[in-house]
Amino acid sequence: MFKRLFDWLRQPLGLIAVGIVLLTVFSLAAYGIFLTQQSSAQPIQFPHRTHVGFGIQCLYCHPGAARGPSAGIPSQAKCWGCHQQIAKTQTSALLAPLKQAVESGTPIQWVPVAMVPDFVQFNHRAHVAAGQNCEDCHGDMTLVTIAENPQVFNMGWCLDCHRKAAGEDEAKLLKLADCGTCHY
Amino acid sequence: MNSKIPEIKLSEEQTGKWGMVIDQDICTGCQACVAACAMENNLSFVGEVDAGYGRSMHWIRIERFWEGEYPEVKMTPGQPMMCQQCGSAPCEPVCPAFATVHSQAEQLNLQVYNRCVGTRYCANNCPYQVRSFNWRDYVRPEPLPNQLNPDVTVRRMGVMEKCTFCIQRIHKAEDKAKSEGRELTDGEFTTACAQACPANAITFGRIDQPESLVSQLIRKHGHGVKHLEELGTLPSVTYFKGG
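Structure tokens for the assembled complex are given below, as produced in the milestone run.
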């Protein structure tokens, strides 16, 4: 029975069938990988690249990073501070959700991109105070439109940096490698 | 075979970092600490069926005992009981997943929720019976989720939990002090139970600093009791009674 199938596959029609099957499997796999590489659907295709290009500091829109645990996502009021003076805001289709949010007073529902699980208590302030730059964890924002994570935030990666930061300082290592520093 | 039971050493000098002092003479047993703890630490409300099985989740409870024979019974002062943050904790060596570990930096017994696999050995080995287990994912009806403390993990089914000495408040206060470039001062922050206590029966602070309020209280009373100290657990909580 297998011999008959094998013989059939060896004729030109069979080879074409095999080719079609292989091509289908390959395309589906490629499409699947493509899907995993997409940034999350945001209400506005926010171009980080453009804003950083204008010379706006990260901390201007995400000031919480210097003060406390959460960096924060700016409200539409903050966007409007600059955008109300830009003529294009009134006409651009991309910026229509911002205009609509300001007029109706309903917040823009941004989808958070850089997230840690609930059992991790992360504090931006300590990391900024320790001299870490935003791009050390969040990647180069001059290269992306919607924020993407070039780095998977897992514990090995956190601890690696913590160990390096502690260096030879035993007390600092105890603190930075302690479970209770991040998990409680 | 000539084997001697090793002599148990009681710790006169406390080796821990954070400690608590509870004055049972002024505790009225009002349960404000129990409520405050539940609010601060996102405790679940298990409902009456599970509470009937003894699965109620409190990180602190008021223990009551009776003295004397009926009808001349007398109630003893209220005894708030929470994790004693033992220096040598019986819960720690029994965990197969290393989920209950000793924090070297803060000298506390930690419960790492993401490591916990729910064997419940730690709770069975705790002489104070202060650990509680999430038997289910208990639902919080709306609008109760709005009061969840964002600084504390919401635990899921199958993990053990216990009093942390409000480690989130310790971290928050330390972080604030550090951002202002100074040392943490005594009494700058306190745990939720101590904050809520209307009689100020609970005091929290550094027991390794002789000038802190807890150290002064321990010296002033002089007859503080540490529960089940004879087990060698080196608890961090000192109780005063009959002063």
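The longest strand of chain B covers residues 18-23. The radius of gyration of chain B is 19 Å. Further analysis is deferred to the final report.
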